[in-house]
Amino acid sequence: MENQKIERPWYKKKRFIIPIGLVVLGMFGSIFDDDKNNNNNTTENSVSAENKSSLTDTMSDKTKLLNNIKSVSNDDIDFSQYQDGQSYTIFAALYSAYAKTYYEYKDSKDEEIKKLVKEFGDKIIISQKKNFPKGRLGYFKALKDKLWEHDIDVSIGGQGNTVLNFTGGNYASNANIKETQETLGEMLRLLRFKQTSFRWYKGQDDYQYYTIDSKKDNEIVEEN
Predict the structure, then answer these.
(1) Stated pTM of the model
(2) How far apart are CA 222 and CA 202, in angstroms?
(3) What confidence score (pLDDT) does residue 130 get?
């Protein structure tokens, strides 16, 4: 009987026999690699998002400080717009807002922000030293015009326009002196006046005066 060569199926041929363990390892290894890559991508995306958010915050803070620096540097304030004494609250509130922003970033650890805060603080002080004396002078003029109608004369003095003097027959009464001081006291403090005096006639030697507990023009203060 003639020997017949039996052709083995291709998958049983020796050169095609692959250990099942390697097949499984290959299959699952691929899956694990995919999971690993997905996890890495997720982590990288998360870190990237955090870095992007941090960068955006820094850019936002930088822009805010730069805008404030530009604003305080453009300090040619037109005091003619303040037609009465009470409207000077706008002037005082402006520098209080600058102070709020300054202290918001004063303790920042970011080196670029720290440099901007230093520049901002220096410019606030320069602007305050220039404008608060002018603001007090403007307030005095508005007050003088108003009180003239009530036969009260107002004059200003002191270094940097820090003292207001009131003269009028009403101030023969201590009650009227107290009422005027209490009515104007908060505004005088905000504008950083240092003293008021009250006489009921010019040349009076014995007169009433008040010392005002206010900040210096070179102090950066956020008013409550």
Answers:
(1) 0.73
(2) 38
(3) 95
| Dihedral (CA of 71, 76, 79, 81) sign | negative
* Burial call 59-83: b when 16+ CB within 10 Å, e when fewer: eebeeebeebbebbeeeebebeebe
Q: In what order do the strands lie in the sheet with 195-199?
A: 153-157, 163-167, 195-199, 208-211
> What's residue 29's pLDDT?
40
Q: 194 — alpha (psi -120 to 50), left (phi > 0) or beta?
A: alpha
- Residue ranges in the chain modelled with pLDDT below 50: 1-36, 40, 42-53, 55
SS3 of 157, please? strand
Beta strands in 84-211 (DSSP E): 153-157, 163-167, 195-199, 208-211
Tokens 């805008």 belong to 67
Please name the residue that has the structure tokens 């604003």: 71
Beta strands in the chain (DSSP E): 153-157, 163-167, 195-199, 208-211
DSSP 3-state of 79: helix
> Which of 63, 79, 82 lies closest to 71, judged by CA?
63
Both tokens assigned to 66: 């730069």
Could you give the dihedral angle defined by the CA atoms of residues 205, 206, 207 and 210, in that order, rounded to the nearest 10 degrees? 110
Q: What is the pLDDT of residues 185-212, one digit of tens each?
A: 999 999 999 999 999 998 888 889 999 9
Q: How far apart are CA 145 and CA 143, in angstroms?
A: 5
